[in-house]
Amino acid sequence: MTKKVLVATSLTAIFVVSMLFAGSLTPAFAPPPPYGTVTGGSVTSNPAGNVYTFTVTTSGKIPHVPDTYITTTAGLVAYGWLDGSGNAVVVAIHPGAVDSTQNPNNWHPHTATLDGSGCVTSLSDPQGGVAIKGSTLSLQMRASVATVSPSTFSGPPAAFTLVGGCVASLP
């Protein structure tokens, strides 16, 4: 079980980093801002079980729109929740790389599948509600489209970027 959690956490971290560097593959990176450090998170369900809430808390205030770090250094920042078998729910921000019909230049959700190396093998564009309050980001998504559930989540969530389509941790 510990191995699965470590692998899932590593894959999540790699996925987040790859997402962060998708827009800019500059080798010299500024240190990530405090919102790049995850301090907690969860996946919960409403009483009826038809809506899941994905929550991540960070060390600093999460920007509502792309800030200088996102636009000039990282290119993409994301938070991800994995299930231990490569399925992920992700909330990403990556201005200039339109891959979503819902809020493409700001925070928006994806579901993804990662291979054993942490590389994205599938990506979808589900609808979901993203809310940011200080250092906490939450996503509400219909259970029928989520690829991770409260019972399969192998937390903690992670902040990451993508490099060449594969998850990388924040520098």
Question: What is the fold's blueprint, element by element?
Answer:
Layout: H1 2-21, E1 38-45, E2 51-58, H2 68-74, E3 77-82, E4 87-93, E5 108-114, E6 120-124, E7 129-133, E8 136-142, E9 158-163, E10 166-169
Give a description of the structure:
The chain has one domain. Helix content is 16%, strand content 37%. It is built from two helices and ten strands; from the N terminus they run αββαββββββββ. The strands form two sheets. It has a six-stranded antiparallel sheet with strand order 6-5-4-3-9-10. The chain has a four-stranded antiparallel sheet with strand order 1-2-8-7, with no helix packed on it. The longest helix has 20 residues, at 2-21.
Low-confidence spans: pLDDT under 50, at least 5 residues?
1-28
Biggest beta sheet summary = 6 strands, antiparallel
Give the count of helical stretches. Answer: 2
Class from helix and strand fractions? alpha+beta
Q: Quote the beta fraction.
A: 35-45%
Radius of gyration: 14 Å
Q: What attributes characterize this protein structure?
A:
alpha+beta, four-stranded antiparallel β-sheet, 2 helices, 10 strands, 16% helix, disordered N terminus
Short structural description:
Helices cover 16% and strands 37% of the residues. By secondary structure, the chain is an alpha+beta fold. The protein is globular and about 40 Å long.
